Amino acid sequence: VPRDAEDYVHRIGRTARAAASGVAITLINPDDMYHFSGIENLIEKEIFKINVPAELGESPKWEVNKRRSNNRGRPKSKPRKHSGNKRR
Known about the structure:
The protein is an all-alpha fold. The protein has helices at 5-13, 33-43.
């Protein structure tokens, strides 16, 4: 999912060129949920969502309450202790 909602709407709009109709399917992982909600805000509509078929695995729970952190599940780093070797 593009980080910019207008880019996504432009790309998906290509399915409706020349008075043709079409269906756009977008697979979203937990990191994309926040950005996808921005698309819904831009078009002022809620987009219908379905879970992936069970044989493909478990679908993530739809949560857009917060942005995903950039640490991608890594623990927060601890402050480093100084070794005492300071330049003067």
